[in-house]
Specification:
Layout lengths: L1 H5 L2 H8 L4 H22 L18 E5 L5 E5 L1 H10 L4 E8 L2 E8 L1
Antiparallel strand pairs: 1-2, 3-4
Length: 109
């Protein structure tokens, strides 16, 4: 249920296909959480931007791998609305994971 609620079907297939699927799932989730925090804090004068109650739309934040090999963020539906509302023009993310650990950072402008 957690995986289906937070990752699209193609990202689930990607993560399960990695040598360390748990680390891959954790890395994607950490990155989405970092993006939410960065978007939420870009403009502190903007009212609450996540509108689906207490459930943050993690499935609406997609982490893809660019041609260069770096992770890239794509916003869909509610996450796109939130990024527009706060004035986000770009997002940079970094993901690291190994074994049982994952960490991610996100910077927005």
């Amino acid at each position: 249920m957690f995986i289906e609620r937070n990752l699209t079907a193609d990202k689930q297939v990607y993560c399960w296909g990695q040598p360390g699927p748990q680390a891959s799932f954790a890395g994607k989730w950490c990155t989405k959480e970092a993006v939410i925090k960065a978007v939420s804090s870009l403009n502190l004068q903007t009212p609450k931007v996540w509108v689906r109650g207490d459930a943050t739309p993690l499935i609406d934040i997609e982490i893809v791998i660019a041609e260069s090999g770096v992770p890239q963020v794509v916003f869909h539906r509610n996450a796109n609305d939130a990024s527009v509302k706060t004035g986000v023009t770009w997002v940079k993310v970094s993901i690291s994971h190994i074994d049982d650990f994952a960490i991610a950072t996100a910077i927005v402008q």
